[in-house]
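Troubleshooting: if your tokenizer reports a length mismatch, compare your output against this known-good record of 297 residues.
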Amino acid sequence: MDYILTTENLTKTYGKNDAAKNINIHIREGEIYGLIGRNGAGKTTVMRMISGLSRPTDGSYTLHGEQKIGVGVLIESPGIYPNMTAHENIKLKCIAMDCDDDAYIKELLDIVGLGDTGKKKAGEFSLGMRQRLGIALALVGDPRMIVLDEPFNGLDPQGIAEIRLTLEKLRDEKGVTIMISSHILDELAKLADSYGIIHEGELLDEFSSDDLRERCEQYVVVRTDDDAKALELIKAQGFDATADEHRNLIRVDDALGKTSELNKKLVESGLGVSEIFAKNVSLEDYYLSLTGGGKDE
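Known-good structure output:
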């Protein structure tokens, strides 16, 4: 699959600090690309440069394709006029971009699920509805790629699901390439086709969802009423096991498909087994393993 956007050593320096340093990103056409990183890692800086909202200090980015490629942008809060309806907000931008057509405006609103909002003012919209209106505004002019910075922020589960379905529809039905940042990694894992992990201004890794499945190991978690005795017994059975005292569990790396056998041995030895299950390492686990964990700054 061809790339729609690549960057080469993209760098943004403020004073003596590199907000983004030598970033090399590769985004395939028609995919959803998730950019992951804690607050202050450089995600928004990269997105602003790619969108043309900020000039790189060094390096470059290239939008690939024979035709002119537009990039739609939703960074921070959507620029919405609260006293206007959804239709009026879209119409205003369409006039500015010389694509003012009521049928076109209705199509954009239908795409994001706001086609039936009628005369309701945008100021009365829920946060999720305002985010979807922001996405519709980013779609004015039919860009082949849109850049969305934290579109799930502050949304309830229903709002998150609505945004996710909207983005999947844009990718699957319209072929729009989407670059998205989010702290909600469980949701991003349901949505993205490829990922980039940025930390302290540097891109640590870039991988596809298939790569993630290959890299994310599986193991068995065991919790008992006497983990010291259980660990000794498990090792005696020939399994590769270690104790995680911080989380009060035993990790068994070579017991997939053998949980019933393992549970039986533990119970027959008089141990009370409170939990035994196969664990898949998640996108969040992988992210934390690369960045060293820690809370958002």
